[in-house]
Write a structure and sequence with these properties.
151 residues; 2 domains; single chain; Rossmann fold; mainly alpha
């Protein structure tokens, strides 16, 4: 369930950045999955943006492209940079891992399976729920949690 997004804002096309040989190899890769490991500030975001732009310009539809990131800010940045590079139009889905998974659950789970509809928890809510689970199981001694998780 990947949905493309239509961006109607008039954007001048941003110029393609200079890529080094390793970045260009990632952009040109078309033979299945590829793991890219790189440190902060090494151009990973630029590389993924150019990889997506390359696929779209080669005729791949936006509905066939999915970009997953770890945070909302990164998702927004990638989305904006893709839009700037292609000048708006039909954009691929760019989401966090969590929001994409949440969308799958919402899209494929019937409402009758839940007392309350599922919702995505914030980091603080998630921590609180985990604390409650640990404390509840500690009281009935059903799970022996490591000490560092109980604090």
């Amino acid at each position: 369930m990947v949905r493309a997004r239509l961006d109607l804002s008039p954007l001048p096309r941003a110029h393609a950045p200079e890529l080094d040989a390793r970045q260009q190899a990632v952009v040109d890769h078309r033979d299945g999955p590829l793991l890219v490991l790189a440190g902060p500030g090494t151009g990973k975001t630029t590389t993924i943006v150019e990889s997506v732009v390359g696929r779209l310009t080669a005729g791949q539809s936006a509905e066939e492209v999915l970009v997953l990131t770890f945070g909302r800010r990164a998702a927004g940045e990638v989305r904006d940079r893709i839009a700037a590079r292609i000048g708006g139009g039909l954009l691929p889905t760019v989401a966090t891992f969590h929001s994409f998974a949440y969308g799958l659950v919402r899209g494929h789970a019937g409402a009758e399976q839940y007392v309350d509809p599922p919702r995505l928890l914030s980091g603080a809510e998630e921590d609180q729920r985990i604390r409650e689970l640990i404390m509840g199981s500690r009281e009935d001694a059903s799970i022996a949690w490591p000490q560092e998780l109980q604090e």
